[in-house]
Amino acid sequence: MSGRNGFWALLFHTVFVIFVLAPIVVVCVVAFTPEGYLSLPVNGPSLRWFEALLNNRDFVSSFQASLLLGTISATLAALIAVPTAIAIVRHEFPGRTALLSLCMSPLMVPSIVLGVAFLRFLSQIGLGGTMVGLVISHVIIITPFVLRTIMNSLGSLDSALDNAAASLGSDGMTTFRRITLPLIAPGILSGWVLAFINSFDEVTMTIFIASPGLTTLPVRLMLYIEDSIDPLVAAVSTVLIVLAVLAMVILDRLFGLDRMLIGTNDADKDK
Amino acid sequence: MSPVTKADNTPSASFLAIDGLTKTYNKVTVVDRFALEVEEGEFVSLLGPSGCGKTTTLQMLGGFVDPSAGSIRLEGRDLIAAPPSKRGLGMVFQSYALFPHMTAAQNIAYGLEVRKVPRAERDERVRQALDLVGLGAYGDRYPRRMSGGQQQRVALARALVIRPRVLLLDEPLSNLDANLREEMQIELRRIQQTTGTTTILVTHDQTEAMALSDRIVLMRAGRIEQIGGPEAVYARPANSFVARFLGKTNLFPGTVGADGRSISIGSHVFAAPAAATPGATIVAVRPEKLGFGEGGIRGVVRNRVFQGTQWLVELDTEHGPAIVQRQNLGAVPPAIGEATGLVFEPDAVHLMAPEADK
Amino acid sequence: MRAISRPLPFLLSIPAALIFVIFLLLPLLGTLILSLQDFSLATGIRPVYELANYVEIFSDSYFFDIFARTARIAVFTTLVTIVIGAPEALILMRMKAPWRGIFLLVALGPLLISVVSRSLGWALLLGGNGMINQALMSMGLIERPIQMMYTEFGVVIAMSHVLMPFMIIAVMTTLQRLNPQVENASHSLGAGSFTTFWRVILPQMLPGIMTGAILVFAMAASAFATPQIIGGRRLKVIATLVYDEFLFSLNWPLGAALAMLLFAVVIVVAIGLNRVAEGYFARMYK
Ligand SMILES: Nc1ncnc2c1ncn2[C@@H]1O[C@H](COP(=O)(O)OP(=O)(O)OP(=O)(O)O)[C@@H](O)[C@H]1O
Ligand SMILES: [Mg+2]
């Protein structure tokens, strides 16, 4: 697109930016209120609610559970996705498309349906309300994200690289370890971060399978909000927002957020 | 018609013997009974139009495509059973396929590392290889930061450093601009002669094939049309396809007289260069062998292009279009619209059987 | 494609295939079966196989109202994301070097922020004494707060915000493939900006808008967190109803039947729209 943005376009854009940022900024600002109720910190910012958050055992333990769950799930998802991506991108075999559809299908199933399905299934196999159960369900819903970034990485590799390595006497395993793996590492890492974020933020499915003793941070937040909205939830949300911004920066550095989400052609981003 | 197809399967004494090599994709045969014997140290080019099966042939040699039939023997050893990594062939890919996360030196060292060549020897051989391709100072550069010609040299050094029995090159120069390509052709020939490595080059550029090779294998639609030295295939193409593919040529329908000693193109009759089979024939004359003069074939100049060192003149003759190439020695050829005669020495012609013309 | 060792791709596929069959297909199948079973507080879940739950859903106007509301919210959310997202995608596309990257982060970054946090932000803005009402009252534009929480309007606004990035991504992906010269060509032929937009750019954006619309509709129809926070108990949609059936009424079979119906509607609408779009665009681009 070579056209320029005129006055009305820029006005529209400004309103859009306000629309996007307003709810996020409001949460972050309210979190710093010194008052005991929802209000803007007109009398100067205070860390009162962040302190309250640190002293809230429920939120702290949920935060830890979320971190652990995200880390384990994203790692397992990456371990599953790497061989799968190689099979799908590099090989032609019966059932290839079926496998791809199967692994991508969690994106098509509404989370609410998955929540219902896992609630029943996990309790039937005796894993209801356990970390293992949470990990299983999260691995299922985040694997598509890792799989897609790894497939993109693999797809953008020159397939002649493998042949070149083979012609130089390198066996399959050595080629994978020394050529393929280092070259798709950024893809694996961004996939991991994306998967982690998706696991960390997941609420709709998790609210069904979490138990009072083992709850993730967004679910705890959701349940808290159902009862009351006070500055404490704003403080929790602020922590989540800061985390998201961190992830954004990491992803942007690693892969280019635009390239990952939209698939900008490389010519634009050549270093 | 593939003139060199051999029926027997006896192991050959030659260095590299390819016989009956065939590849079929879903009933479509893309390489059809390819047969070739290559001597040690020879430089052979596979030449043909796009899609004629050159890459497929080379990939079968390299082990990256499974042949549907045929045999490949290197020094009497059957290659087909060996995986690519055990064939000991060096390969340069059209895209170079340099490992982007390794420096030039690391790229070159890779083949030696997987062969477990000791450190000291490895470093020495990498250094020699870099020197051989004239990149002594560039060992620490990453491919991304090298020019096309430099990347191409790294790819060549990487393939040569493992001392391959045969070097396979798939259009290695096609990504380079014209000047660099010529420079690299000379370089490639020099390096090949220095190392004495048997080389098979795939190209669709006939000047490249002629400039580099000891022998040229001309392919069309999966089949070999002709094999021979550059001068031989240029001067004596087996059919009109080969004649046209190897540069511009004029093809006139003619008749060989009953005695086999005279040839007529319409009313123009001249002596046959050698005894020929009486009957219809196709007379091929290269544009540089045609001149303007009295008699000969009558034609009218359609277009005239000045190219500095030479003139290129296109004519419409009574026997179809013709093209004449004259060195610029000061004389100006006939102008557009002018009628003239086209003359040639009787021994400048090459006769081809008409049925070979598709 | 190389055709070396044949068993390799199968070996590589085994982990994923096993995990997805056991932990995705089996649970979904289990839910389908569960939706056929019967529940009462006295007996719990009884292993019968009948369509009673579905019959109940179709014959009770209570459920119909909730399905209708869910559809309304999903449709309006889709429309809002189109009307705002599509032009914004074009504007982003036309931005130059540093700005484009910055505003792309602004537009798409919220994807990485928890839905709960984003919905909470809207609750703070839309509430009875939320920022919007306070601002309007202090400017003297209104006397009493406008009711926006617990309304379909509020849910649509918040959900449009949550799903906007998907529309922008879809449209930008399409715009990415356009030949930038086409626009110049149109101008060179004497067309003004408006004509160029209407006749040249918009038609080329349509496939992206369609993809985005399908995605947004599917997610809006099955969204849970935003309707739960903004709509509350009073304004139920299918997803929040399923949640209530499972965790409060404990009628799992009915909840499962609702979930399966929601799933079916979303899939049918998505596939149907996709067909229509493909048929239409195939003609255009063949
Ligand atoms: N994997 C494949 N499956 C089916 N057909 C193939 C495959 N690979 C190549 N072909 C076909 O085989 C024919 C020969 O291809 P090949 O790549 O060998 O041609 P080429 O001579 O190298 O051409 P070019 O000069 O364009 O590189 C082509 O018609 C091509 O379409
Ligand atoms: Mg080729």
Automatic annotation (TrEMBL), chain A:
<keyword id="KW-1003">Cell membrane</keyword>
<keyword id="KW-0997">Cell inner membrane</keyword>
<keyword id="KW-0472">Membrane</keyword>
<dbReference type="InterPro" id="IPR000515">
    <property type="entry name" value="MetI-like"/>
</dbReference>
<keyword id="KW-0813">Transport</keyword>
<dbReference type="GO" id="GO:0055085">
    <property type="term" value="P:transmembrane transport"/>
</dbReference>
<feature type="domain" description="ABC transmembrane type-1">
    <location>
        <begin position="63"/>
        <end position="251"/>
    </location>
</feature>
<feature type="transmembrane region" description="Helical">
    <location>
        <begin position="63"/>
        <end position="86"/>
    </location>
</feature>
<protein>
    <submittedName>
        <fullName>ABC transporter permease</fullName>
    </submittedName>
</protein>
<dbReference type="InterPro" id="IPR035906">
    <property type="entry name" value="MetI-like_sf"/>
</dbReference>
<dbReference type="Pfam" id="PF00528">
    <property type="entry name" value="BPD_transp_1"/>
</dbReference>
<keyword id="KW-1133">Transmembrane helix</keyword>
<feature type="transmembrane region" description="Helical">
    <location>
        <begin position="203"/>
        <end position="225"/>
    </location>
</feature>
<feature type="transmembrane region" description="Helical">
    <location>
        <begin position="98"/>
        <end position="119"/>
    </location>
</feature>
<comment type="similarity">
    <text>Belongs to the binding-protein-dependent transport system permease family.</text>
</comment>
TrEMBL record, chain B:
<dbReference type="InterPro" id="IPR003593">
    <property type="entry name" value="AAA+_ATPase"/>
</dbReference>
<dbReference type="Pfam" id="PF08402">
    <property type="entry name" value="TOBE_2"/>
</dbReference>
<dbReference type="Pfam" id="PF00005">
    <property type="entry name" value="ABC_tran"/>
</dbReference>
<dbReference type="InterPro" id="IPR013611">
    <property type="entry name" value="Transp-assoc_OB_typ2"/>
</dbReference>
<dbReference type="InterPro" id="IPR008995">
    <property type="entry name" value="Mo/tungstate-bd_C_term_dom"/>
</dbReference>
<dbReference type="GO" id="GO:0016887">
    <property type="term" value="F:ATP hydrolysis activity"/>
</dbReference>
<keyword id="KW-0547">Nucleotide-binding</keyword>
<dbReference type="InterPro" id="IPR027417">
    <property type="entry name" value="P-loop_NTPase"/>
</dbReference>
<keyword id="KW-0813">Transport</keyword>
<comment type="similarity">
    <text>Belongs to the ABC transporter superfamily.</text>
</comment>
<keyword id="KW-0067">ATP-binding</keyword>
<dbReference type="InterPro" id="IPR003439">
    <property type="entry name" value="ABC_transporter-like_ATP-bd"/>
</dbReference>
<protein>
    <submittedName>
        <fullName>ABC transporter ATP-binding protein</fullName>
    </submittedName>
</protein>
<dbReference type="GO" id="GO:0005524">
    <property type="term" value="F:ATP binding"/>
</dbReference>
<dbReference type="GO" id="GO:0015697">
    <property type="term" value="P:quaternary ammonium group transport"/>
</dbReference>
UniProtKB/TrEMBL annotation, chain C:
<comment type="similarity">
    <text>Belongs to the binding-protein-dependent transport system permease family. CysTW subfamily.</text>
</comment>
<dbReference type="InterPro" id="IPR035906">
    <property type="entry name" value="MetI-like_sf"/>
</dbReference>
<feature type="transmembrane region" description="Helical">
    <location>
        <begin position="209"/>
        <end position="230"/>
    </location>
</feature>
<keyword id="KW-0813">Transport</keyword>
<dbReference type="GO" id="GO:0055085">
    <property type="term" value="P:transmembrane transport"/>
</dbReference>
<keyword id="KW-0472">Membrane</keyword>
<feature type="transmembrane region" description="Helical">
    <location>
        <begin position="185"/>
        <end position="202"/>
    </location>
</feature>
<feature type="transmembrane region" description="Helical">
    <location>
        <begin position="12"/>
        <end position="34"/>
    </location>
</feature>
<feature type="transmembrane region" description="Helical">
    <location>
        <begin position="66"/>
        <end position="85"/>
    </location>
</feature>
<keyword id="KW-0812">Transmembrane</keyword>
<protein>
    <submittedName>
        <fullName>ABC transporter permease</fullName>
    </submittedName>
</protein>
<feature type="transmembrane region" description="Helical">
    <location>
        <begin position="122"/>
        <end position="141"/>
    </location>
</feature>
<dbReference type="GO" id="GO:0005886">
    <property type="term" value="C:plasma membrane"/>
</dbReference>
<feature type="transmembrane region" description="Helical">
    <location>
        <begin position="97"/>
        <end position="116"/>
    </location>
</feature>
<feature type="transmembrane region" description="Helical">
    <location>
        <begin position="250"/>
        <end position="273"/>
    </location>
</feature>
